[in-house]
Design a protein that fits this description.
Largest sheet: 2 strands, antiparallel
Order of helices and strands: EEHHHHH
Low-confidence stretches: none
Distance between the termini: 41 Å
Number of strands: 2
Radius of gyration: 16 Å
Number of domains: 1
Strand order of the largest sheet: 1-2
Strand content: 5-15%
Helix content: 55-70%
Length: 129
């Protein structure tokens, strides 16, 4: 079973989530994506969503692409600061909001950007670029 972009109405609920991995002694940060069933979502629709992600191996793809995307996002935040920008969290939240508006709240890069913007260690990650 797959989601169909014209016939299936995707609920405006968050189901793609990301956790960050930092390894002591290494400069970088990694990401692991997963699906979490939102409270109140009908089992029938949840089964469709999870089947869609499993059959297309989307979480595996997001995990594979995530580290490169993190590096790009951190570099963009660093460039923002070097160019006179003051608040890279606000900058990153703006980019996440734009992705969300265009692709939906569960687009993996929108989820990644928003989660990074909220993360307590973002300052250290940006300064480490």
């Amino acid at each position: 079973m797959f989601l169909h972009s014209y016939t299936d109405l995707v609920p405006d609920l968050q189901f793609v989530v990301v956790k960050f991995n930092e390894i002591a002694g290494f400069k970088g940060v990694g990401a692991n994506f997963s699906l979490t069933k939102p409270f109140g979502l009908a089992d029938e629709f949840w089964n469709l969503i999870s089947s869609h992600f499993e059959r297309l191996k989307l979480i595996d793809r997001y995990d594979e692409l995530g580290n490169d995307e993190i590096a790009e996002i951190l570099k963009d935040c660093h460039i923002h600061l070097e160019s006179g920008g003051q608040n890279f969290r606000k900058f990153l939240r703006g980019r996440a909001k734009d992705r969300c508006n265009v692709y939906g709240r569960n687009h993996w890069i929108a989820v990644l950007m928003e989660s990074m913007a909220k993360h307590a260690n973002l300052d250290r990650w940006v300064k480490g670029v």
